[in-house]
Amino acid sequence: MHMEVRREPITLLRSVEITQIPTGERVSLSPGAYVILQHVQDGNFTVMTERGGLARVDGKDADALGPAYVELAKEAEEARSNRQEGPFDEEKVWDELRTVYDPEIPANIVDLGLVYHVVSTPLREGGHKVTVQMTLTAPACGVGPMIVEDVRRKVAGLPGVREADVQLVFEPMWTPDRMSESARLVLGLF
Asked: Are 109 and 182 found together in one domain?
């Protein structure tokens, strides 16, 4: 299901915990409050709150937004389950990383150039340890821990991965030069 993002108010059907952007602070919004959808990324929703700040509504809380959003989150979860079938393949790691977004930016972390290295190491007891070295667009990014946890959780959920080690590094420092052409197009940087 493809949902066209309309910048119209959505009245919350129940209270919901959101993650404020860029601080990463968790706050609760009450039923009846409204938000305006900004973009949808892998079943999570970036919204503007009544006060004008950006926030992320996790896919597990899509019911607070309404039935169409529940369906969208469900489809994203089904797509994720399909990606997690079969034997270990390092390309699946990269595919999964392409589903992780900085909630402020409608481009994935691979296209933004935030992923520096992915290394998979077979383990003696079976399976693989996957190490991901990545950075953030800004060292003080408040949602950085949320992005790192998204990477860890998604990589750890892949078939054959027994251990996911996500290392946040700031050398070399990220610059927009690391972005792919598609990310530049999405962000209008041409």
From this structure: yes
